[in-house]
Amino acid sequence: MANRQSGGSNTAGGGAQRPNGAPQNKICQFKLVLLGESAVGKSSLVLRFVKGQFHEYQESTIGAAFLTQTVMLDDTTVKFEIWDTAGQERYHSLAPMYYRGAQAAIVVYDITNQETFARAKTWVKELQRQASPNIVIALAGNKSDLSAKRMVDHDEAYAYADENGLLFMETSAKTAMNVTDIFLAIGMFL
Amino acid sequence: MNYNTSSYNPSSSGRISRLISEQADLMCKNKCGHYGNKVQEGYCSVCYKIYKQQQQQQNSARYGPRDEAFGPDGESSQGVFGRSGFATLPKSARLSLDSLSPLTGSFSKFEEKKKQQTDRKTKSFRSVFRKSPTPSSPQPGKKSPEKGSKEASHRHGSDGGSSPQMSPRKVANTDKDQIRDEINTFLAQIPNKRIVSDVVSKVKQCEEVILELLRQEKGSIDEASDIVQDFYKNFQAKTEIVKCYQEISMEDKETLMNLIEKYLTISLYKEFFSPMSTATEDETQDLELQTRIRQLNWMTCKHLEVALNERDRSVRDLVYASINVIIGMDSVKPPQEKLACVTQCSHHIIEALGKSKQGPTAADDFLPTLIYIVIKANPTRLQSNINYITRFCNAACLMRGEAGYFFTNLCCAVSFIQNMKGESLGMPEEEFQDYMSGRSVPMESWENYFLESIHAMEEMSNVVSELELRQQEFLKNVEKFKENMKNKEDRVTEQVDKILKRTPLTFKPRKVPTNIDEEDPALNETSLPSPLKPEVVSIVGASAGNESSVTLPATAEVEREAPSKATQVIPTSSQLVNLTGNDSEEYKEGEEAEVFESISPSPQSESETDLQQERIEGVEKLKEKVSRQKNQASLIDEGSHRQENFDAVGTSSKSDQRGSENVEEGLVVPSKPKEKIKSVDNNDAMESSDLDP
Predict the structure, then answer these.
(1) Which of B451, B439, B435 is closest to B303 using CA atoms?
(2) Boundaries of each VPS9 domain copy (chain B) (predicted)?
(3) How do the domains of chain B map onto residue ranges?
(4) Does residue B170 register a pLDDT over 50?
(5) What predicted TM-score, i.e. pTM, was given to this entire model?
(6) Phi, psi for B482 (deg, rounded to 5)
């Protein structure tokens, strides 16, 4: 079925790549996919960026699966469409459906958990292999406010990101550190 | 046109015949479940009759006027936007439509044929999905004969009535009419007529190209999809570049694109949805998915780690709502509307999740829940719907936007369901296969099954306890009401008593006129004491004179005498009282003896005793006098009473009437209290009605 669907999308060709992204309008619309193990704070990160809020025990009414946010970059309006993905291992194989046609991806890991970093590396590899070649990949080490429990070294992650040509930032959805910055950096890059 | 050859055409009925067991040779050819007969060309008696009728109709259709063969639907495909919209179209547009109409007319027959094929196909599939699991006992055909069709269904080609076939056609027409009206009203708003004519011609062109393509045997649905997608893309680009399109706003452009998409998909729905060229593929996929989901019916929230709190009633309602919406996706035609169903279903799920747990609903929770919902809903022709949307929805819409996101999730869910293994649920493959084959059922599914009954039980017990409360309340009210009634009764009886006391119902004896001259038999003259006589001797003469006047009535005599006697006697008695030293006020008849007794025993001298003796005698006399006086007084009373009676007799006739009136009044009196009682009753009734729970 996945094949069929991709077949359908291929008929649209590159048109789907950057819809409405005509530069003369100064309005850019980007599809951004969030990848990462569950419980690394993907949705918290997005909610901080979109709604500017963080709650330890968040309100239940918010759907964080699909969100949009518009930011101004110089004189260009950038509209982010953020697609959340299920982080559980069993849904790993479904990820290509999500990042198909995406212009950007943020791979999130938890700096207090070495395993999530390992998973993030596999995500990056997969994206580089399967996603559209000009996709912008950002690596985000979340929960930087919990540096006391740090398990993933900042320099190690930085070196990895540098090696693979990724944007890298350590973020904290709780303190809002680098949250908007990483999105803006992606916007600039695009 | 020959019915027999078409019915065994392997290309048209290959799939169906695969489902039919070979045993069916003896059965009616129509598969109505009855046995056939060689004489009746292998049909049962009922089907043979219908078959004969049908043949006649086909013959008449073949040799009759050509137009008839096109059927009522032939007209609808003639103009792109139909006749209903012509009035609103400008001349230029009408011209283009008119010039194109002969072209499209030639397609109508083909279109109809296609539609019938699809109709039959979906029908046959539905009948397979119906509760009859074995293909040897299919439902009796309910479809009317299809005139002018090469591939009239041998399965459903029974039933002479034409209404079942007419109704779906009509629905299709109204759908088309609606979108036609919609697009016409929209186009009428656009001031630039060049745009209108351009849109009309382009859409027509696209429709023709697709029909032309599909008419060729080799034309596949993927090519049609390519054409449609290219058309969307090109048209989108055109609206952005071409000069005259700059006049309309962005929103209008979007609406126009949507309307065009809607129009194309609705008018070509039969060709696009689960089309003939790939029918086997799509339908096999549908069937496989259905079976797969049915095999997975043992899955519960726990297997997928779904965070739904199914004990909460509102959550359950939302779950059912989402299931309804996703099932309803099959019944709408345009891809946008199908997408809207997916989005709505997703919103219900997110809401349900929000009520079940803390924190925002992220994809980590959403996707498993969607998978769970799809498994529980098992939507009809899900795979065909997904394929249809992927092929003919504007691809740009599928790649972005909320609808695109949720549709991607649905595709993921379906993909997950298809590829699910024991490993993906965290259980040994063997166990998973056991569950899938139905060899064993996991405990959880029983729990889930019981959960349903437990929900029902909980609900029922809630209802019962509520009823109990109400019952108690009711009983309390009844008690209260009873008490009130009793109070009311007491009050009423009290009032009635009071009223009766005040106005007693007594019958006064009729007043009888008395004859005053008549001797009162009760009054015995001899037993009466003799009239009083003055004691003073000096006036004996006078008294004698008095006595001599016997002619006077006794009463008058007493009347005259009484005052004189009183004046004489009373002073003496007061003197006596003073002598005895007793309080004059205490002097009463009954006490007299006592008084004298107290006097008598006092020791006195002889002279004194003599004096006392004398006094006692005097007292005795006085006593006598007093008693006599009393008698007289009573006599006087009687006399006066008699006088009254006499007066009454004087006005006898009048008093009689009055007397009777009095009696009547006496009878009437109790009616008033009755009224009062009535009013009290009314009050009671009102109060009782208040109390009624």
Answers:
(1) B435
(2) 283-426
(3) 23-272, 287-443, 541-668
(4) no
(5) 0.55
(6) -60, -50
Contact B360 A60 (CB under 8 A): yes
CA distances from B684 to B482, B488, B494, B497 (A): 11, 7, 15, 18
Task: Say if the Cβ atoms of A64 and B424 lie within 8 Å.
Answer: no
DSSP B457-470: HHHHHHHHHHHHHH
Q: What is the pLDDT of residue A109?
A: 93
Whether residue A60 and residue B357 make contact (CB cut-off 8 A), yes or no, is: yes
The residue among A129, A131, A122, A125 whose CA lies nearest residue A83 is A131
DSSP string, B586-602: G--TTTHHHHHHHHTTS
Classified as helix, coil or strand, A105 is: strand
ipTM of the complex: 0.84
Which chain B residues have a beta carbon less than 8 Å from that of A47?
360
Which of B228, B345, B405, B420 to substitute to test the interface with A, most A CBs within 10 Å? B405
Give the per-residue SS3 of B382-443: HHHHHHHHHHHCCHHHHHCHHHHHHHHHHHHHHHHHHHCCCHHHCCCHHHHHHHHHCCCCCH
Residues 6+ apart with CB under 8 A from B606: none
- Residue B216 is predicted with a pLDDT of 72
The amino acid at residue B644 is E
Q: Which of B395, B405, B416 sits opposite A12 (nearest CB)?
A: B395
pLDDT of B522 reads 67
Tens-digit pLDDT profile for residues B648-672: 444 444 444 444 444 444 444 444 4
* Residue B31 φ/ψ, nearest 5 degrees: 60, 40
Mean pLDDT value of segment A8-13: 34
β-sheet bridge partners, residue A177: A172
The pLDDT tens digits of the residues spanning B224-239 come to 888 888 888 888 888 8
Cα–Cα distance between B435 and A35 in angstroms, integer?
32
Report for A69-73, B71-75, B377-381: range of highest mean pLDDT? B377-381
* HSE-up of residue B526 (Cα within 13 Å, Cβ side): 0
- Interatomic CA distance for residues A59 and B354, integer angstroms: 8
DSSP-derived secondary structure for A11-60? HHGGGGTSTT--GGGTEEEEEEEEEE-TTSSHHHHHHHHHH----TT--S
A72: alpha, beta or left? (left if phi > 0; alpha if psi -120 to 50): beta
Look at the domain B287-443 and name its fold.
Glutathione S-transferase Yfyf (Class Pi); Chain A, domain 2 (1.20.1050)
With residues binned 3-state (H G I as helix, E B as strand, rest as coil), the percentages for chain A, rounded to 5, are: 45, 25, 30
Mean pLDDT computed over B24-37: 69
pLDDT value of position B137: 37
